[in-house]
Structure formats: C-alpha cells, structure tokens
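Protocol step 4 of 5: obtain the predicted structure for the target chain.
Materials: sequence only (see below). No template structures provided, no constraints applied. The aim of this step is simply to have a reference model before the mutagenesis design in step 5. Sequence pasted as it appears in the construct record:
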Amino acid sequence: MPRRIFLDSCTAQTVRDYGGDINEGEPIDASDRIHRVTDGIANIEALRNIFLINERALFEWIVSSGSLHEAGEKNDPGHMQWLWDIADHSDVCLEGSGPTAESAERVNDFETAGI
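Step 4 output (structure tokens):
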C-alpha cells in the first residue's frame, strides 16, 4: 500500500468543495453542479472510499510544486490557501522521513535522462 498520495490541484479543489460529503457523508444537494460533471458523483464516492481507508492507512498527502503553480493560475485565493496548507503538511512529511525508495529512484531516472 502506498505511503504517500500526491494530490493534483483538481482533486484538492474537489476535496475542498465537497469535504463534508467526502469526510462526513453529508448529502450533496440535487441541484449541485457536480451532478452535471461526467463521473462527478463517482469521483466523490471514490474519494470518500480513499479517505475511509486513510482512517487506518494514514497516508501522507503531498502536493507538488506543479500543482501549486497550476492552482496559482486559477486566481482563486481560497483555493491557493487550501493548497498552501496541504503543501505545508507535505513539507513536514517529506522532511520528517525523506523520500521513499521509489521517489529516490525516479529522481535518479530523471537526472540520468537530463530532466
């Protein structure tokens, strides 16, 4: 089972907007726009299941600098603050235990490829 899960800015936005349903099972209003999004409700349910597993798995939620940059382009201060809060947590996790073996291997692959 993975120890860390990377959140892209879209997923972080969904968690921010629908956290009550994802974390607490609160109902989503029938007129909410998520019902018009392809697989919108299925995505909410999938996130709910991931968060239920996380109650025991204790994943570390990580936000990349690319996600922060993408979120900054939305020009939404609330969304940006939400991502900065997650990024602060990410930094604590990464500083505390360092990169996973898989992450270190990928960095080596990127450096070898000159990326």
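Step 4 remarks: The chain has one domain: 4-113. The first helix runs from residue 9 to 17.
Proceed to step 5.
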